[in-house]
Design brief:
This protein has three helices and eight strands. It has helices at residues 21-34, 57-67, 95-109; strands at residues 12-17, 47-54, 75-83, 86-89, 123-124, 134-144, 146-153, 156-164.
């Protein structure tokens, strides 16, 4: 319907990944070099894999059920340019999208009504300001080794679950 406003959750839940501490330190140095004011705590930097909707115990429980047996290997993310205050991915990465679709399908099968979401790999380094910054960067890459269920709001992240991604290749005893 024209003019319809989508209601934003007051306490939204997200599936996300976060850069490990070593990469966070590198990103802090990058922000300093590019003049990005860090008003958003670096430990909250994340890549959104999937919005879940409003925080509710039923949704949290359903995500936990869905991920009890979710078997996925770590995958790499790589960023090589910045637009505004957002890291953008190196071209040709398919695995993050495959992973995201598998995750969404698994969670939806457990009865969670997911909001419409067009996944696009990115990592915001700052929020709220407008920037015309556009630059190529030396590649920033790391393996995503865990995913998190986070409630975001009131300037903080509340963790509701953490799942390691386990590489099952090469685990045969020869």
């Amino acid at each position: 319907m024209a003019g319809q406003v989508t209601r934003r959750a007051e306490r939204p839940l997200y599936m996300m990944f976060k850069p490990p501490p070593r990469e966070r330190a590198r990103l802090i140095r990058l922000c300093a070099a590019l003049g990005i004011e860090i008003g958003y705590a670096p430990e909250r930097w994340h890549g959104t894999l999937l919005p879940i909707g409003e925080t509710a115990s039923a949704a949290i429980d359903a995500v936990h059920r869905a991920l009890e047996t979710f078997d996925a290997a770590p995958f790499s993310v790589a960023f090589d340019h910045i637009e505004g205050d957002t890291l953008k991915p190196r071209k040709g990465q398919r695995t993050p999208g495959y992973f995201q679709r598998a995750l969404a399908a698994r969670i939806a099968r457990c009865g969670v009504m997911l909001p419409d979401y067009a996944f696009s790999l990115h990592l915001n380094l700052a929020y709220g300001g407008a920037s015309l910054r556009c630059a190529r960067l030396p590649p920033i890459e790391w393996p995503v080794e865990e995913i998190l269920l986070i409630e975001s709001g009131s300037g903080r992240h509340i963790e509701h679950g953490r799942w390691p991604l386990i590489d099952r290749q090469g685990m045969f005893a020869f």
